[in-house]
Specification:
binds glycine, 9 helices, alpha+beta, single chain, four-stranded antiparallel sheet
Length: 301
């Protein structure tokens, strides 16, 4: 099997002056994952490396650069899933670590659980020797400014659905030389969310799904819409019904809009290594390796 990988760096109205950063960040993420796949490493390792690279990059709403919640704190969600075994690890509302996706991977590797939340997730990180960090290390001036502006906007409602504001959730899907697929997604969630709010990203089938029998998908966009239509599983189920990767991605995004007027994007790899993406937001940041082995990174819109 020829390996393949595609990543996303969010779907929203990506401001023009940040296009170059999004392109560079998604390109570096694909490069990190592709380097492993070329050496014969697993799809699971590749998606972890790709997502962790974007968590390290302050451009994105994941890890460093995550948005602030309504009380000025950062709570992050992430998931990773192995399509060979259907094993998954996820963390929700976790604070004070840089790479939630790596913590999710440790849950797969070292526990018989699937999802750890909040303080329990953080304690598990500490137990496994992950470096805990101060909130200041995750916080970027862009998000402090946004938080202060939102504090002034008294009529702001989380239920407003899609706005042209950031949805810089990151994700990756890959297939390795053995034909195993994997998916990973990580996010700081939506800006000015209530403390304790968990989005779609760590929810299996919503934020990501991977099954060797069909393929793997990772979602970005408005979490409350994505979870209602279980967007990633809807996409891989469409593969199982015989759709191509592109048809499945298009179908799932249209289904989300038709059923719940939701906005977002999806990346997908099928069990034959075909990759695709679809979105209904003004832009989506994506990068992938093309059939000649070259990395392509784009702001689609
Ligand atoms: N899609 C990310 C979130 O809504 O939290």
């Amino acid at each position: 099997m020829k390996p393949a990988i595609i990543v996303h760096g969010g779907a929203w109205k990506i401001a023009e002056d940040t296009h170059a950063d999004h392109i560079a960040g998604t390109r570096a993420a694909v490069a990190a994952g592709w380097a492993l796949l070329k050496q014969g490493e697993t799809a699971l390792d590749a998606v972890e490396a790709a997502v962790s690279a974007m968590e390290d990059d302050p451009t994105f709403d994941a890890g460093i650069g995550s948005v602030l919640n309504r009380v000025g704190e950062i709570e992050m969600d992430a998931i990773i899933m192995d399509g060979e075994t259907l094993a998954l690890g996820a963390v929700a509302a976790v604070r004070g670590i840089i790479n939630p996706v790596r913590l999710a991977r440790l849950i797969v590797r070292d526990t018989d659980h699937s999802l750890l939340v909040a303080e329990g997730a953080r304690r598990f990180a500490e137990l496994k020797g992950m470096r805990l960090c101060a909130e200041a290390e995750l916080t970027v001036p862009r998000e402090v400014e946004r938080f202060r502006a939102l504090q002034q906007k008294k009529d702001y409602h989380l239920s407003e659905g899609f706005t042209p504001d950031p949805m810089d959730t990151v994700g990756a899907v890959a297939i390795d030389a053995n034909g195993n697929v994997a998916a990973a997604t990580s996010t700081g969630g939506v800006h000015y969310k209530l403390p304790g709010r968990v989005g779609d990203s760590p929810l299996v089938g919503a934020g990501a799904y991977a099954d060797n029998l069909t393929g793997a998908a990772s979602a970005t966009g408005h979490g409350e819409s994505i979870m209602r239509v279980v967007l990633s599983k809807t996409t891989t189920d469409a593969l199982g019904q015989g759709m191509s990767a592109q048809e499945a991605a298009d179908y799932a995004i249209k289904y989300m809009y038709d059923r719940v007027s939701g906005y977002g994007g999806i990346i997908v790899v099928d069990s034959q290594g075909e990759i695709a993406f679809a979105y209904n937001t003004p832009h989506m940041a994506v990068a992938w390796v093309d059939s000649s082995g070259e990395i392509q990174a784009r702001i689609k819109g």
